[in-house]
Amino acid sequence: MILRGIILEGAEQMEKSELLRQWIADSDNIVFFGGAGVSTESGIPDFRSVDGLYHQKYDYPPETILSHTFYMEKTEEFYRFYRDKMLALDAKPNAAHLKLAELEAKGKLKAVVTQNIDGLHQAAGSKNVLELHGSVHRNYCRKCGKLYDAQYIKNSAGVPMCSCGGQIKPDVVLYEEGLDSSTMQAAIHAISQAEVLIIGGTSLAVYPAAGLIDYYRGNKLVLINKSATPLDSRADLVIQAPIGEVFSAVC
């Protein structure tokens, strides 16, 4: 009985993969919206996962440390955590990143909307990447606006300072901070115009980003995640599997 169940489950997964493959083949207006699960396959931990950053050496939970208030009041402690946990500069793009870049190069994928801040989509070759939460690769002086790369932050000690004497801040959206309005508008436009919307590697639990699904008007909404999401019932196709594995199979 167990074997039969496994065979049936595998057959269903193959049918779903084939349907997704067909939708991708037939469309030249695809948008991808991804979350932390896209990057975990590159070895970048999801700081909300129970086996991730909660088992760590800090006196505060990650959501507290990665807040605007904590950054302003305990800046040195913020950077101790940030360097240790958020700057995975040796990570490489995985199959999902690479396949999405290929689809864009073929003119099929119009945009990547991402909640991730690691820059791996660009490293894989994607051009139109809408970073809802910013990027660790952009850092700016709060006094003069001079830009610094992630390696500068990684190699600095204490609170990184600009040559002008100003304090440097990562261009990432911290808790209590609002999303960039122009990036949000671009994401809304791309999603509202998409024929196929593929959402992958996200639990769809973080708002306002998760609310972007409301702007999709088509009938080919695909949710790919290793576990169920609160919005599975709204999808036209749900695949519970690692995102890289799925893209390797269908693209």
Automatic annotation (TrEMBL):
What are the residue boundaries of the Deacetylase sirtuin-type domain, all occurrences included?
10-251
Q: What is its EC number?
A: 2.3.1.286
Keywords of the record, alphabetical order, are: Cytoplasm, Metal-binding, NAD, Transferase, Zinc
A GO molecular-function descriptor: zinc ion binding
Report the superkingdom from the record. Bacteria
Q: One GO term of the cellular component aspect?
A: cytoplasm
- For the keyword Repressor, the answer is no
Q: Where is the signal peptide?
A: none
Q: Which family is it part of?
A: Belongs to the sirtuin family. Class U subfamily.
| The protein's name in its UniProt record | NAD-dependent protein deacetylase
Query: Which species is listed as the source?
Result: Eubacterium ramulus ATCC 29099
